[in-house]
Design brief:
heterodimer, A: 265 residues, alpha/beta, Rossmann fold, 31% helix, globular, B: 409 residues, alpha+beta, elongated
Amino acid sequence: MSAPQNAAPVIEIRDLTKVYRMGDVEVHALKGVSLTVEQGDFVAIMGPSGSGKSTLMNIIGCLDRPTAGTYRLDGIDVSRLDRDDRAEIRNAKIGFVFQSFNLLARTRATENVELPLLYGNLGLTAPERAKRSRDALARVGLAGREDHYPSQLSGGQQQRVAIARALVTDPAILLADEPTGNLDSRTSEEVIGIFQELNDAGKTVVLITHEPDIAAHARRVVYVRDGLIWRDERIVQMRAKHPDAAAGEPVAFPFPIAAPEEVVR
Amino acid sequence: MKVTAMRLLNITKVGLMAIARNKMRSLLTMLGIIIGVACVITMVAVGTGASSSIQATINSLGSNFIMVFPGAAMSGGMRSFTGESKLTPEDALAIKAECPAVAYVSPGARTNAQIVAGEQNWGTQVWGVDVDWPFIRAWNVADGDFFTDVDVRSSAKVAVLGSTVAENLFPNGDAGGSTIRIKHVPFKVVGVLERKGGNMMGQDQDDQIIAPYTTVMKQLMGSPRINMVYVSARSADQVGQAQIEIEALLRQRHRLGPGQESDFNMRSQEEIASTSAQTSRTLSILLGSAAAISLLVGGIGIMNIMLVSVTERTREIGVRLAIGAKGRHVLLQFLLEAIALSVVGGGIGVALGLLIPHLVTRFAGMPTQVSTGSVLLAFGFAAAIGVFFGFYPARKASRLDPIDALRYE
C-alpha cells in the first residue's frame, strides 16, 4: 500500500479541477491545478479568498474529491476514494491543524492527542497510545502539561496540543489551515517555529495562510489565484538547509504578493 | 477481529468521555429515565403488593366459602339492602339438610356489645354461629376449645375470643376458663382463636367474640333474624352447584314466585377474589401506564438533548471526521452516548425502584412486592428508548460533511 518514501513525491496533483454547481450556475473553483510536493518540503499555499485556495486544501486533505484530474498522496491515488476510504487515508496520512485549534473541551491534552489513534487501524493498546501521545506532546514542547485541560492552556499551547494531535499518527503530511490566524504575533512565531523544527526533522508540511510573514517561514510558496497556480517560488531560508529543498529556483522573499493584480496587469 | 473489538471499545470510551464531560446536563437528561424506571417498578410493586395481600386475605376467609346475605342482589357492587332480614337460623339448617353440594353451614348473628372482664372493658362485635363455623372459616382455636353442639342446643353461655379481644381483656394471658360479661350477661371463656390479621377492608378480624348463635339471639339480640349464613361447599368445583341449590331452596322456603326478586344474595370466595383481583389489576395497569408515559417522555428528553448536543458539537464532529472517524464511528459514538445515558439512568432508576417500595412499606404501611419482571421490563424499555431516540440524532451527526462541520460557527 505504501510506496517507499522519497521514491515518489508525497503529493502529486495533475490537472485538478473542481466544479461546484450552485443552482444553474457552475462555479469553477479549480481550473486545472498541477502541484508536486516532495518528501520533506515545507510549502505555503497563499491566495486571496475565492481564489480556490480552500478548495485545494480540502482536496489535499482528502476532505473533498476533485471533479477531474488525479491526486496521489504518498503514492496512493486518492482522487476517487469514497467517504470511508478517505476517512482512513486522513487518519493514516494527514495530520490536520486548524485555525481555531479545535481541541475537545474538558478533555485532557493527552486524551486530545490520543483521539486519532482511537479511530485508526494501528491496533495499539491503551498504554501504547498513551506513550505515543506523551511523545507527541514532548515533541511540541509540552512535556509536563499532559494532564492540562485546554482551558488551562494559552492559545499557543493549545495550538501545540493540536500539532501533537496531528503528529501522533506519524502522517505523511502535516496540513495546517491558517494555524496562526487566532494567535498574536509572538505566539505565531512560536507556533510556526514548531512547524519549522518538525520540517527540519523531515516532516512534510503544507501550510495554508494569507499572511506573507508566516508564509516566509516556508521553503516554498505557492500562490493560488482564480483557480490556478499563479506563482510557485522557492525561498532561501537562513536556517539549516534540508537536502531535498535544493530543487527549484530560490528567490528572495517576499515577492510582491501584497498586490498581485497589479503585477499581472 | 481483535482490532474491531478494540475499536468498539475505543468508541465506547469516546462516548463515555463525552458524558463525563457534561455531568450536569447528563444527569438532567437522565432524570426522565430515572423517574420513569423508578415509577414503573414502584407502581408495579405497590400494585402487586396490594393484590397479593388482598389475595392472602381472601384465602384466609376459608376454602369454597359462600356467604348468603339478606336483601336483593347487588347492583353495581353496592348491596341495596334496607329492609329487614328475611334469613333465619332455620334457613341455615335447611341448607345443611337439603343441599348435597354443601358441606358446612352456620348462621351468623351479629351484635355490638360492651364486654367487661374484671376491671377491663372492651367494645367489640359478638357473632353468634354454629359449630361448623371454624371449618368454614378455616380458623382454629389456639388456646382451649371451640364450643360444642351441646352448647349450641342448650344455649350455653360460652364464648370464644378473638386474639385482640383476649389481649385487651386479659393482658396477663389468663383468658381460658374466666368469665366475661357481655351486656351484663356472664359468659364463660372456653377458647381463644388463633390470630388472623386484617381483612380486605383493613378491619381487624381478631377483634370479635364468637358464641353459640342460639345464646346470642336469645340473650343478646331479641330478634329471630340473622345477619348472614356461612356456607362451605364440598369442593371448589361444587361452589357453583351449591349456589344453585341454595338459591332454589331459599326461594322455595321464602315462597317467592317465578317473577319475584330474591330477598337474599350470595357471594362466593371466588367472586370476591376475582372482583378484587380485577380491581387491583386495573389499578396496576393505570399506574404502570402513567409511569410508562414518563419513561417515554424521558426518551424524548434524551432525543432532544442529543439533537442539541449534535448541533452544539458540530465542530467537534468535524474534527473527528477530519482526523479519520468514519460516519459509522460518529453514529456509534452518539448512539452509545444515548444508550449510556438511558442505561445509566435506568440503573439509577432501578436502584430507586428497589428502595422506594421499601420506604413505602416502612412509612406508609402499604404492602409492596418488587417483581423481577417489572425491573427487567423497565430497564430493558429504558435501554430500548436509548437506541430508539438516540438513533435519529446519531444518524444526523454521522451524515455531516466534514468541511461544513469544521466551518460551523
